[in-house]
């Protein structure tokens, strides 16, 4: 890996006007003669400390609910914007009663736990660490605290992986650590487990370890469905670079690790033979049968038109397939092969924009991808501002609908505006990433002399297949202070 200037990493306070302005709170931008990372407080350690501090602030924000909002009064947890699924599902999914996920049938309509297997195991382990004695309210509080501690470890792993994925840009991990949406949504659900595993898989891919990267992507997919989408961009990128062996190893690792986790729960045996266990399949059937729900473009259209949009599944699938086809064409037509992080962000954002539901914690899926795809503070904070507004909007809307005739909160028209803000914020970030793909000289990562630091075997690899023109040679290296070389030119 070629560094930008000797062995120094990129300093955001010297390249980003927003980062420079924000650094005034801590004494101003780093000086030219400063030697960062030479003491105990290396960039990665600073980023981890900041992330843990922000995570703790997010826990403090949940304090009104911890002190009673989850348990007493239907709308208190919405008014204080501190709702979490974790304490409610402790009893609601049988963990308080010692039921085994996927094997024991639950009382009520849900019947089985509606989460993927690795997430179910995470929830089960947290229940083992929760004492059995005491009142149920106290046990739910402890269960949330145990899960919060485990999720804090996931947050630390996440920021370390992001900081190390781009070797010369460790400070990009600070975007993740300081993301307000991360602090607000980290303990709503268990998504951080899949997010951390995905980030670890991307780190290993960037280190040219495709088999190990695939193993972690498979484990992430066993915790949440969205990480499997990353195999699509990798397919097209490896196609363009001719890196079929690397892709095959990654795919093999992903399939193998997913099966290792799922097969023990997926199959059951009776005298008639092996068949799929109904409890294991609950996550997939629930996702398919679930109607349009909060935060989606489909709910916005349904509320505005009065049409229930019963075929939203079909519409969402078609839009997702069309969007993936468009991303494949973008990859094969782009003047330089897009960076892996750029396509990873775009495909997950496409899934979020077309999905039937957008829960507030889904923003966690995009935060690390956005930090790697477009490490510019202005764009990142614009998008985060939109997500924070949506976070407040959905809870105020639920307070409105749950307050009976009082209607205290945000009416439907206000919530529809919050959905629109979320959609436009995500589309804005997608637009600037696509612009970077089409105009590589605008990409802040490539302006510093990199090609694809998250690409592993793809980094500086020549093209072997493109559409509409001859393949380009290996990208030239540009060092700061040296004459700029046009992308695709051969440096003598």
Structural topology:
Blueprint: H1 12-15, H2 17-22, H3 43-61, H4 63-69, H5 76-79, H6 85-92, H7 117-128, H8 136-165, H9 173-177, H10 180-185, H11 191-206, H12 210-221, H13 231-241, H14 244-266, E1 267-270, E2 273-276, H15 278-289, H16 297-305, H17 312-333, H18 340-354, H19 363-373, H20 377-402, H21 412-438, H22 444-447
Structure overview:
By secondary structure, the protein is an all-alpha fold. Residues 1-7 and 477-492 have low confidence and may be disordered. Helix 11 (191-206) runs parallel beside helix 19 (363-373). The protein has one domain (42-458). The protein has a two-stranded antiparallel sheet with strand order 1-2. The protein has helices at residues 12-15, 17-22, 43-61, 63-69, 76-79, 85-92, 117-128, 136-165, 173-177, 180-185, 191-206, 210-221, 231-241, 244-266, 278-289, 297-305, 312-333, 340-354, 363-373, 377-402, 412-438, 444-447; strands spanning 267-270, 273-276. The chain is built from 22 helices and 2 strands. 47% of the residues are buried. The chain starts with 11 loop residues before the first helix and ends in a 45-residue tail after the last helix.
């Amino acid at each position: 890996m070629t560094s930008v200037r000797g062995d120094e990493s990129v300093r955001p306070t010297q390249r980003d006007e927003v980062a420079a302005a924000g650094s005034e709170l801590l004494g101003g931008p780093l000086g030219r003669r400063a030697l960062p990372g030479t003491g105990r407080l290396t960039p990665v350690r600073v980023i981890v400390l900041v992330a843990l501090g922000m995570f703790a602030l997010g826990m403090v924000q949940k304090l009104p609910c911890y002190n009673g909002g989850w348990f007493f009064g239907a709308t208190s947890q919405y008014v204080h914007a501190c709702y979490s699924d974790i304490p409610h599902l402790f009893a609601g999914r049988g963990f308080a009663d010692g039921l085994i996920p996927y094997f024991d049938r639950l009382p009520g309509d849900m019947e089985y736990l509606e989460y993927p297997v690795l997430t179910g195991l995470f929830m089960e382990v947290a229940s083992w660490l929760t004492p059995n004695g005491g009142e149920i309210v106290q046990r739910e509080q402890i269960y949330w605290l145990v899960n919060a501690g485990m999720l804090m470890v996931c947050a630390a792993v996440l920021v370390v992986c992001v900081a190390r994925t781009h070797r010369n840009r460790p400070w990009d991990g600070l975007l993740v650590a300081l993301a307000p949406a991360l602090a607000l949504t980290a303990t709503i659900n268990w998504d951080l487990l899949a997010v951390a595993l995905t980030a670890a898989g991307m780190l290993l891919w960037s280190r040219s370890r495709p088999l190990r990267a695939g193993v972690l992507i498979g484990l992430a997919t066993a915790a949440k469905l969205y990480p499997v989408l990353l195999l699509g961009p990798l397919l097209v990128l490896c196609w363009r670079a001719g890196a079929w062996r690397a892709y095959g190893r990654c795919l093999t690792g992903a399939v193998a690790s997913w099966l290792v986790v799922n097969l023990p729960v997926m199959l059951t045996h009776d005298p008639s033979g092996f068949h799929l266990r109904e409890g294991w399949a609950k996550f997939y059937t629930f996702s398919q049968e679930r109607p349009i729900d909060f935060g989606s473009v489909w709910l916005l259209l349904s509320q505005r038109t009065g049409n229930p949009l019963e075929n939203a599944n079909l519409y969402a699938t078609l839009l997702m397939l069309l969007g993936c086809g468009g991303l494949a064409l973008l990859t094969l037509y782009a003047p330089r092969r897009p960076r892996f992080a750029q396509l990873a962000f775009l495909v997950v954002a496409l899934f979020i924009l077309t999905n039937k539901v957008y829960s507030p914690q889904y923003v966690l899926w995009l935060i690390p991808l956005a930090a790697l795809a477009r490490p510019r503070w202005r764009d990142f904070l614009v998008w985060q501002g939109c997500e924070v507004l949506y976070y407040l909007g959905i809870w105020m809307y639920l307070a409105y609908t749950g307050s009976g005739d009082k209607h205290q909160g945000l009416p439907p028209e206000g919530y529809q505006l919050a959905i629109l803000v979320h959609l436009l914020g995500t589309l804005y970030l997608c637009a600037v990433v696509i612009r970077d793909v089409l105009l590589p000289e605008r990409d802040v990562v490539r302006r510093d002399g990199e090609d694809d630091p998250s690409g592993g075997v793809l980094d500086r690899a020549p093209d072997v297949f493109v559409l509409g023109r001859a393949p380009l040679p290996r990208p030239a290296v540009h060092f700061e202070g040296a004459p700029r070389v046009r992308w695709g030119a051969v440096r003598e």
